[in-house]
Write a structure and sequence with these properties.
oxidoreductase (chains A, B), about 425 residues, about 35% helix, Dihydrodipicolinate Reductase, domain 2, 6-stranded parallel beta sheet, Alpha-Beta Plaits, 11-stranded mixed beta sheet, alpha/beta, HDH (chains A, B), homodimer
C-alpha cells in the first residue's frame, strides 16, 4: 500500500488556495484520520508567475493538464476551476484515466451530471461534489448517506449568500435594491455582473443538484423555474414584516405524488421559521424527511476556507476509498425518473400587492375575480389610501399557481386596477 | 453476492419499532439506494406476547440472543435496547462473531466505547452509533467525514430535548422549574425519575461522545463536568432576558492549547446566537472548525422515527461496506490523548446573582473581592432594592473558573452578602 496519495489540483484561485492551505495546516490530523498522507503533487494554473501568497514547492505548478491526467501517480484530481469548459473536458479525461475526481463546480455538475456520473461509474471512480452546493455545509453527504433511510419530501433553503446578504441589509435598513447592490459590489460580495446571483441562476443550479439527490431523479436545469430578487422593494419587505414574514431567496424542491416541484424565487417565510434567522452571507438548507421530520443545516455557503473544507472532506473520502480499493461506493443515485411539474402546477400561497383606485366596490370586484378562479384569500389589507389610489395587499390560501396567474390576467383588465405591483410566494407554514 | 442483507434487531421499543417501520415503508427507496435489499430476520424481545401495533411475520420474534448472534446469515446487528447490560455483552458477542453493529445506545458508547471499538477493529466490523447523539441529526457522520479536514475548535449544543422543552416553557411562560417538570412528565416528555435529563447526565454522555470524535481523544465520562437545570429560577430567566440572553442547557466541548474542556451546564447565550432560536424538544449542535467556520445542525433529538432515521442510515452504510467487503472503513478515531482540563481551569464568562444588604458600600466591597481574584466585571445591575435587601446581578469578562470560585468563597464571608443565589456560565459571544 502506498504511504501517500498524490493529488492533482486544477486551479489555484480562492478555493484552490484554500484547499492547499488546509491540506498543509491540518496535515497531521488529516493523515491520522485517513490513515495515509495526502500530497498535492501538481497544480494546473493559467499563469505560472502570478503571486498567490503561498510558498509553493519548486516545480509544483504547471500549465499543462497532461502533467496531471497523464501522471499515473496522481490518484485524485481536484477541480476548482469553475465554469463548464475546460473543466468538463479535464474532469472527463481524469475519470477516463481511472482517477477519482473531487469538484466544487456547480455549473458543471448541474448541467453535465449525467455524463460525469456515467464516466465515473464506467471507470469505477469516485466523483464527489460536496462543495458545489452551500460551501462548507455538508448537505450532499447528508442527503446521500445520513438521511438515506428517508423519503425526502422537501428540501429548501438559502443557497446564495450574495442575495441573502442583500435581503438582510434591505430588511434591516429599509434600503432599496439598487443601493444595496452597489454596496455589495463595493464590498466584494456581489460581482460586477451580478446576474447569476440576483437573477437566481446560481441558486437554480444548486437546487437542481439538491433535488436530483433528494428525489433520485435528474433535474434538468431548464426545468427549474427561476426568479431573482430584482423586483423586491422596501415596500414589500415592510408589508412582509407587518404580516409576520421575512423575505428570503429560496431554492425549493418538493416531492409530490404528481411529480416534483423545483423552483427558485423570493419567498415570504414566517419569522419564527428556522430559516428566518439566517442572516448575512450565511446559507442554510432545510430538509423534511418522512422519518426524521424537520432538519436544518447551517453554515458559510462560500469563501476560501469554508468551501475548501468541503473539498478536503471529499478528498479524504476519495482517499479512504482508494486505500480500500472501493472507489465509487456511493455513485449516482438518480435511479428514478419522476416528472418535474411545470410552474403552473406548483402549489403555494401568494402575497399579491395591487395598486388600485381608491373608491368603493374595488375590493369586491377583485375578490370576485379571485373567487371565479378558485383562489381563496386568507387576508386582505388596504394600505396607503390617498383618495385617488390605494394599495391592496392580499395573501391567498394554498392554491395552484395557474389559478393565480389566470386571476391576475383578469384583474389586470379591471379599470379600477392600475398595477399588479408584485407577486411573491409564501412558504414554510402549514 | 447476496441479494438481501439480513439484520438482527435487539429490542422492539420505541426506536426498534421505528426502525422496523422505516425499513418496511421506505423499503424500495432503501433497496435502490444501497443496491441490495435489507431484511430484518430476527427480533429479540423480552416478551413474545406484547402487542406492539405492528404486523410481524410469524416466528420473527425470539427471546434468545443466540438466535441472532449464532445465525451466520445475520450480517448486521442493530442494538436498540438501551442501558449498559445486557446490551454490552450482546454487542461484543455480535462483533466477535464478525457482525457489524449499529447502536443507538449513548450510555454504552460513552462508557464502553474503547472496548467496543477494539472489538470492532479486531473483527473488522462496522460499529456505527449515529443515533446515540441528537437523534435524527447526522452529527457523528458530519464530524467523522464531512468536517474531517478541519481542526475542530468547539462543539456545543442543545442535546437534551426534555430540558430544552422545559427551559423553553419557563422562558415563554415564566413558570418555575417544579411546575414545568410536572407538566413535562404529564405529557411524557420527562420520565418519572427525571434525574438523567434535568441533572444533565444524559447530555454529559452525548457531549463525551461528540468531544471524543471532534478532538480524536477519548473523553472519560467522569471527566465531564455536569450540572443540571434544577437551580434555574424564573428570576434568572428574567435577568437573562433583560441582559440580552436566553438560558439553554448546553453540552460544551472546546479544544484549547492547554487541553480540552468538556462540560454540561445551563448557559446564557446571546439571543441572536443560532442556538437561541432552537425551542421545544428540538436539538441543535453548533460546530466551529478552523476551515469551515461556524456551522449548525438542527433537528429532532429523540422520538421513534427521527432516532430510527439515524439508525437506518447507519444500517445502510454498514450494508454498503458489507457488499464491498470493507467493514470498518471508518473506525475508531481516538488517536490522540489530549488532557481534559479540570473545571477550575476552564474559561468562561459568568452571570452571578447575589442577595445583599441594601446599604452603601456593599458593591464596593464585593467589587474589591472580585478584583483581588482578578475577575473583571463587564456589568453590574442592582435589582429589587427593598431598603433591607437588594439583588446584585453581575456579569464577568472571560476568566478562569477557579478565580470565580475563589472570589465567591470570599464573598460568602462578607457580612453584607446574604446569599450567592446563582452562578450561570455565559457562552456564545466573543
Amino acid at each position: 500500500m502506498e504511504q501517500v496519495i498524490k493529488i492533482g489540483l486544477l486551479g489555484l484561485g480562492t478555493v484552490g488556495r484554500g484547499v492547499y492551505r488546509i491540506l498543509a495546516e491540518n496535515r497531521e490530523n488529516i493523515r491520522q484520520r485517513v490513515g495515509i498522507g495526502l500530497e498535492i503533487k501538481k497544480i494546473m494554473v493559467r499563469n505560472l508567475d502570478k503571486d498567490r501568497g503561498l510558498s509553493l514547492p519548486e516545480g509544483i505548478l504547471t500549465t499543462n493538464i497532461q502533467d496531471i491526467t497523464n501522471d499515473p501517480e496522481i490518484k485524485i484530481v481536484v477541480e476548482v476551476l469553475g465554469g463548464i469548459q475546460p473543466a468538463l473536458d479535464y474532469v472527463l479525461e481524469a475519470l477516463n484515466r481511472g482517477k477519482s475526481v473531487v469538484t466544487a463546480n456547480k455549473d458543471m455538475v448541474a448541467e453535465h451530471g449525467q455524463r460525469l456520473f456515467k464516466a465515473a461509474q464506467t471507470n469505477q471512480c469516485d466523483l464527489l461534489f460536496e462543495a458545489s452546493v452551500a460551501g462548507g455545509i455538508p448537505i450532499i453527504r447528508t442527503l446521500k448517506q445520513s438521511l438515506a433511510g428517508n423519503r425526502i419530501d422537501e428540501v429548501f433553503g438559502i443557497i446564495n449568500g450574495t442575495t441573502n446578504y442583500m435581503l438582510t441589509k434591505m430588511t434591516q435598513e429599509g434600503c432599496d435594491f439598487k443601493d444595496v447592490l452597489q454596496e455589495a459590489q463595493a464590498k466584494g460580495y456581489a460581482e460586477a455582473d451580478p446576474t447569476a446571483d440576483v437573477g437566481g441562476f446560481d441558486a437554480a443550479r444548486k437546487i437542481a443538484i439538491l433535488a436530483s439527490i433528494a428525489f433520485n431523479t435528474r433535474i434538468p436545469l431548464q426545468q427549474v423555474y427561476t426568479e431573482g430578487i430584482t423586483h423586491i422593494t422596501p415596500q414589500d419587505i415592510l408589508y412582509a414584516n407587518e404580516l409576520g414574514y421575512i423575505i428570503k431567496l429560496l431554492g425549493i424542491a418538493k416531492n409530490r405524488p404528481e411529480g416534483v416541484e423545483v423552483r427558485v424565487h423570493p419567498t415570504f417565510i414566517p419569522k419564527d421559521h428556522p430559516l428566518a434567522a439566517v442572516g448575512d452571507a450565511f446559507n442554510a438548507v432545510f430538509v423534511r424527511g418522512n422519518a426524521v421530520g424537520d432538519t436544518m443545516f447551517y453554515g458559510r455557503g462560500a469563501g476560501e476556507l469554508p468551501t475548501a473544507s468541503a473539498v478536503v472532506a471529499d478528498i479524504m473520502d476519495a482517499a479512504r476509498d482508494i486505500i480500500r480499493n472501493v472507489p465509487g461506493i456511493i455513485g449516482c443515485t438518480c435511479f428514478k425518473q419522476l416528472p418535474v411539474l411545470p410552474v403552473g402546477e406548483t402549489l403555494s400561497k401568494y402575497y399579491i400587492r395591487l395598486r388600485v383606485a381608491d373608491k368603493p366596490g374595488v375590493l369586491a370586484s377583485i375578490a370576485l375575480v379571485f373567487g371565479n378562479k378558485e383562489v381563496s384569500l386568507k387576508s386582505v389589507i388596504q394600505k396607503e389610501a390617498t383618495g385617488k389610489t390605494a394599495e391592496l395587499v392580499l395573501v391567498t390560501h394554498r392554491v395552484q399557481e395557474q389559478n393565480v396567474q389566470d386571476a391576475l390576467m383578469d384583474i389586470k383588465q379591471l379599470s379600477s386596477v392600475m398595477e399588479v405591483a408584485n407577486v411573491i410566494r409564501v412558504e414554510g407554514e402549514e
